[in-house]
Amino acid sequence: RGVAGTAWLAVLLLIKYLIQEPLRYGIHLIQRLIQHLITFWKRCSTRNPFNPWYQFLDRQYDRWCSVNTAGMDLLESIPDLDVNAYSPAPRSTFFLVLRQIEIDPSKFVFIDFGCGRGKPLLLASELPFKSITGIELSPDLVKTAEENLRTYRWRKRCKVIQVIHADAREYQMPNDPAICFFYDPFKADTMAQVLDNIRQSLAAAPRDLYILYILPKERHLMDQSAFLAPLKQTAGYCIYKAQACGMPSSL
User: Fold this and answer.
1) Residue 182 C-alpha from the chain's centroid
2) pTM of the prediction?
3) How confident is the model at residue 35 (pLDDT cuts 50, 70, 90)?
4) Chain-centre distance of CA 240, in angstroms?
5) What is the spatial distance between Cα 131 and Cα 159, in angstroms, rounded to a whole number?
6) 84, 163 in Cβ contact below 8 A?
7) What is the pLDDT of residue 247?
8) What phi, psi does 143 have (nearest 5°)?
9) Alpha-carbon separation of residue 128 from 45, 104, 164, 205 (angstroms)
10) What H or E segment, with its residue span, contains residue 132?
């Protein structure tokens, strides 16, 4: 009886081992698979110029609209080191941010600082803005943006669209209610000067003004600007509205 009992116990332990170990190993494999899937999803959902998924979407947009906005441009022809490389703004992100503010577009001008090949201008033209302006320092990108405006075959609800070849630090703001759009165009020094120009323009002609800042690497400059009030702040974008009063003499 002792031998038989020991044998049965051994058999039961073996069965338990055969059931538990594969189950434990299987659960471990499932956990690792889930972790890998989460990592893969984060990489695919992160907006950057090297993401193959977003490169595909950019090329598809260009095909549908008969334009040339996809790809990167390192701006090697520009001696100014305070500007960032060009990459196209994603359509989904553009409208996600724009929907956060409730405005009548027909009463606002849209200004894109560092417009590159002009994709935000094309996207903005789907709305009836009073006018749309792109400011760009690179002559090559200005030429491409102007060509994109000519070949763009999507419906334009705004007919007054222009690309200005200029240094954003020297651009004089119009005295209209404005949406100022930034898609990570500048480093800190240039961004600070552009913000100071906006502040001075608001001091001279108080009006409604919003700043939409995607990939806000220099958001601290806006957070420190007393004339701007944050409406929404995330890791991917920030939205600010100009204060009606209390504008300081400097940032």
Assistant:
1) 8
2) 0.78
3) confident
4) 15
5) 7
6) no
7) 39
8) -60, -45
9) 30, 9, 20, 23
10) strand 131-136
